[in-house]
């Protein structure tokens, strides 16, 4: 089991912790983590951008996409859009992606105070911790 630190923009972290977002997605033009490095059973720390870690979730299932076409992206949006809780702008901003990872969210825990502090000063949206 690996541990990961995921950085979330806006209210995405809270949507996960309230159960409104049941799948997390990461799309990119290159093979960035979590592509190829996340597995079922892994633990993901939820960190809103610029804030402390607010919770964690266990990965239930992972689906990876290699060589995504615009048609593939439209199909992913149609099939998983509601569970992803993503707006139209999100999908438009991902139109040139070639790689994708869908992370199905299992058990979640909200922290009252962050039990760990991870110093992060770069712009990566995903960090594999171990």
Number of strands: 6
Rounded to an integer in angstroms, the radius of gyration calculated over CA atoms is: 14 Å
Number of helices: 3
Major sheet: 6 strands, mixed
Order of helices and strands: EHEEEHHEE
Name the shape in a single word: globular
Task: Provide a short characterization of the protein structure.
This protein is α+β, with helices and mostly antiparallel strands. The protein has helices spanning 12-17, 70-84, 88-93, and strands at residues 3-8, 23-28, 43-48, 55-66, 99-110, 126-128. The model has no long low-confidence stretch (mean pLDDT 95).
Structure description:
The protein has 130 residues and is an alpha+beta fold. Helix content is 21%, strand content 35%. The protein contains three helices and six strands; from the N terminus they run βαβββααββ. Strands 2-5-4-3-1-6 form a six-stranded mixed β-sheet. A hairpin with a 6-residue loop joins β3 and β4. The longest helix is centred in the middle third of the chain and has 15 residues, at 70-84. The protein starts with a strand and ends with a strand.
Question: Which features characterize this protein?
Answer:
alpha+beta; 6-stranded mixed beta sheet; 6 strands; globular
Task: Map the helices and strands.
Blueprint: E1 3-8, H1 12-17, E2 23-28, E3 43-48, E4 55-66, H2 70-84, H3 88-93, E5 99-110, E6 126-128
Parallel strand pairs: 1-3
Antiparallel strand pairs: 1-6, 2-5, 3-4, 4-5
């Amino acid at each position: 089991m690996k541990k990961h630190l995921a950085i979330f923009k806006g209210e995405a972290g809270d949507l996960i912790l309230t159960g409104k977002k049941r799948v997390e997605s990461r799309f990119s033009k290159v093979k960035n983590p979590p592509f190829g490095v996340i597995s079922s059973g892994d633990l993901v720390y939820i960190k809103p951008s610029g804030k402390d870690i607010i919770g964690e979730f266990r990965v239930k299932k992972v689906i990876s996409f290699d060589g995504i076409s615009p048609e593939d992206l439209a199909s992913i949006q149609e099939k998983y859009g509601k569970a992803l809780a993503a707006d139209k702008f999100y999908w438009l901003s991902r139109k040139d992606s070639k790689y994708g990872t869908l992370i199905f969210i299992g058990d979640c825990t909200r922290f009252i105070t962050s039990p760990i502090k991870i110093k992060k000063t770069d712009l990566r949206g995903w960090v594999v911790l171990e």
